From TrEMBL:
Protein's organism: Evansella cellulosilytica (strain ATCC 21833 / DSM 2522 / FERM P-1141 / JCM 9156 / N-4) (Bacillus cellulosilyticus)
Domain ChlI/MoxR AAA lid: 240-312
Keyword annotations: ATP-binding, Nucleotide-binding
Family: Belongs to the MoxR family.
InterPro entries: ATPase_AAA-3, CbbQ/NirQ/NorQ/GpvN, ChlI/MoxR_AAA_lid, P-loop_NTPase
PANTHER family, per database record: METHANOL DEHYDROGENASE REGULATOR, MOXR FAMILY PROTEIN
Any one Pfam family match given in the protein's UniProt record, by short name: AAA_3
Lineage of source species: Bacteria, Bacillati, Bacillota, Bacilli, Bacillales
Gene3D superfamilies assigned to the protein according to its UniProt record, in alphabetical order: Magnesium chelatase subunit I, C-Terminal domain, P-loop containing nucleotide triphosphate hydrolases
Name of this chain's protein: ATPase associated with various cellular activities AAA_3
Length: 326
């Protein structure tokens, strides 16, 4: 039995989500899918990794989301000389009080843009690990909780670019989604030019939701029903990445959890109080593509992670049952 008393509430919150997506679209033109995926990550408590060339709107996307919520926003520009303390914060001696005082780093915000994360050293990249997974940072032996809600959108240049440090598998696994924004069409680019001709639309953007609204929606997402047949479908997809002939290292159980939670959020923004297998199928490429490592033969054959995930999705039977068929 579904929790029918949540139906009206979910439909009401769906309208609120639509308001936020529409608000972001005033700034980011023609990227409805990417805005929607970012919103799914936000609602499910996950984080996003964008891999794309400079100038396609990555920064505007996260800034517009922050302004739509009236959230505390910080940007971290990752460079080769950035230190972990530049991210988490540092204790400074106050000569007046004769005590050390903690000065929080930019990670202590609601929405954080970690720009060009693969331009910094692995040591500084690791400073994000605890924040992404635990929602806290440890400095000077003391653990400090981060603000709620907490959302990180990290960007990285394509690996082929010079001066980059590939993210280790443990850090990639902390991101719910990995996707690209891509170049706009000619018509979309003309629309961009018209919008910024006199004033950038980001400067006029007003909040349409509060942080309290977001926190409540995150709680409501947890009430979205996931039938055991859908959970088994998630497990089958993830498990197949571990035994696929082209894969050296498959997705971990964290991927199963991420796919389920993302599917709950996707169903929620669709105005449903239950997850269907098509939700899982749609989100699986964004959740799984960065969580597998291909073997050397596959790399030599120019097989891509995307091709492997698509093959796995195509070969796993979609469950059919009372709840799954809904």
């Amino acid at each position: 039995m579904f929790k029918n008393h949540h139906a009206e509430e979910i439909q009401l919150k769906e309208k609120n989500v639509e308001k936020m997506i529409g608000n972001v679209e005033k700034v980011v033109v023609g990227k409805r899918r990417e805005i929607e995926l970012s919103t799914i990550a936000l609602l499910s408590g996950g984080h996003v990794l964008l891999e794309d060339v400079p100038g396609v709107g990555k920064t505007m996307l996260v800034r517009a989301m922050a302004k739509s919520l009236g959230a505390n926003f910080k940007r971290i520009q990752f460079t080769p000389d950035l230190l972990p303390s530049d991210v988490t914060g540092v204790s400074v001696f106050n000569q007046k009080t004769m005590e050390f005082q903690f000065r929080p780093g930019p990670i202590m915000a609601n929405i954080v843009l970690a720009d060009e994360i693969n331009r910094t050293s692995p040591k500084t990249q690791a400073a994000l690990l605890e924040a992404l997974e635990e929602g806290s940072v440890t400095t000077d032996g003391e653990t400090r909780e981060l603000q709620e809600p907490f959302f990180v959108m990290a960007t990285q240049n394509p690996i082929e670019y010079g001066g980059t440090y590939p993210l280790p598998e443990a850090q990639l696994d902390r991101f719910l989604f990995k996707f690209k924004i891509g170049y706009p069409t000619k018509a979309e680019e003309l629309d961009v030019l018209n919008r910024v001709e006199k004033q950038h639309p980001i400067d006029q953007l007003e909040p349409v939701l509060s942080l309290d609204d977001l926190i409540q929606m995150q709680k409501n997402v947890l009430d979205v029903y996931v039938d055991n047949t859908v959970k088994q479908y998630i497990i089958d997809l993830v498990n197949t990445t571990r035994i696929h002939y082209a894969v050296y290292l498959g997705a971990s159980p964290r991927a199963s959890i991420a796919l389920m939670k993302a599917s709950q959020a996707y169903a929620y923004i669709q105005g449903r109080e239950y997850v269907v297998p098509d939700d899982v199928k749609y989100l699986a490429p964004y959740v799984l593509r960065h969580r597998i490592l291909l073997n050397s033969d596959s790399k030599l054959s120019n097989v891509t992670n995307e091709q492997v995930i698509k093959e796995i999705i195509d070969q796993i039977r979609i469950p059919v049952g009372k709840e799954a068929a809904k």
